Amino acid sequence: MLDPTEALSPFQLRLASMDDFSFAEALTRNNMNGYYRRHNLVWRSDLFLGSWRESENFVLECDGQAIGVMRVTEEDQSLHIRDVQVVEGWRRTGAGTFLLDTAHRWARARGLTETQLRVFVDNPAARLYIRMGYKTAGSRLAQFGAIRHMVRCV
């Protein structure tokens, strides 16, 4: 029976495997390329792989097609959202909101008190995070000055 409290969604989230790594890295690198260039940062595949191995990784799908990636880790009483990446043609369709709502539900279910993430200061996704209740908590990577650390109570 349908639970009327659950919103119907065209999106499905599945646990990623190493078979998904190439997709996830290519998507993340492609989405972040402009920010890295503008802020004089260098992409390092070895660091992404290390982070992948330490994170819980998920692939977002719609009708069986991979359209995004979310990666999370637990830190103290917080669920840290490492990545929310959506394929360009799927942005502004609710995919990012679906991923963040899922992370918020997971954090509550795990008894955590907050979610946190980092975003480039010039990334338009920051507007979504603010709409969803995130507040700037200072820059964790102050030496770069390009990254905003944001937190939301769950």
Walk me through this protein's architecture:
This protein is of the alpha+beta class and 154 residues long. It has a single domain, classed as Aminopeptidase. The chain has helices at residues 21-38, 45-54, 95-109, 125-131, and strands at residues 11-15, 56-62, 65-75, 78-86, 114-120, 135-136, 147-153. Strands 1-2-3-4-5-7-6 form a seven-stranded mixed beta sheet, sandwiched between helices. Strand 3 (65-75) and strand 4 (78-86) form a beta hairpin. The longest helix has 18 residues, at 21-38. The chain starts with 10 loop residues before the first strand and ends with a strand.
What's the short story on this structure?
The protein has 154 residues and is α+β, with helices and mostly antiparallel strands. Helices cover 32% and strands 31% of the residues. The chain has a seven-stranded mixed sheet, sandwiched between helices.
Indicate the CATH class: Alpha Beta
Number of separate domains:
1
Low-confidence stretches: none
Structure annotation, total helices:
4
Describe the structure using short key phrases.
single chain, 4 helices, alpha+beta, Aminopeptidase, 31% strand, 32% helix
Topology:
Elements: E1 11-15, H1 21-38, H2 45-54, E2 56-62, E3 65-75, E4 78-86, H3 95-109, E5 114-120, H4 125-131, E6 135-136, E7 147-153
Parallel strand pairs: 4-5
Antiparallel strand pairs: 1-2, 2-3, 3-4, 5-7, 6-7
